[in-house]
Amino acid sequence: MLSDAPPETSDAELMQRVADEDRDALAEVYERFGGLVHTIALRSVGAHHDAEDITQQVFLALWRSRGSLDPASGSLAGWLATVTRRRCADHHAARARDQRDDRVVAALGPAPPPTPLPDDVADRVVVAHELASLGDPRATIIRMAIIEDRRQQDVADALGLPLGTVKSHIRRGLLDLRHRLEEVNP
User: Fold this and answer.
1) Which of 40, 60, 49, 33 is nearest to 95 (CA)?
2) What CATH number is attached to the domain comprising 40?
3) What is the pLDDT of residues 27-45, one digit of tens each?
4) Residues 129 and 162 in one domain
């Protein structure tokens, strides 16, 4: 009796179609070999969720390496089984690293509480941030006059600005800074 079903595509043809970027061929490969890949992974790692992740990684690897697939170099099932075993080995190695890291952390004991910053350091950070938010040239002028303790005339000379402009920037800048700091620390 003759069957109306189309003849099954050979592995070599499927590999070539995947190499030619045929997404339908990738779906066929998954349909044909997904159970095999999942079974190998499940037997190795023992958890369905991990086996599903590995199965997805294997078929993603197949698609990503499609340009280097060569049907003459081996069977599709062999390629998939080899990649699956490698992914399982990677999974076991990662699990061993995680367990080792957990043991090291447990041996170290509980972490000490974080050391709070001294109040003066925290205040300096806030002032520096608010000063920077004033923008230039005002922030530069205030930094030179107040933080670097330079005379107003020296600031004017260094920046090539009139003395009155420097004085105005300092006065308005300090008022803005005071207002901003009052908002931060009421």
Assistant:
1) 49
2) 1.10.1740.10
3) 999 999 999 999 999 999 9
4) yes
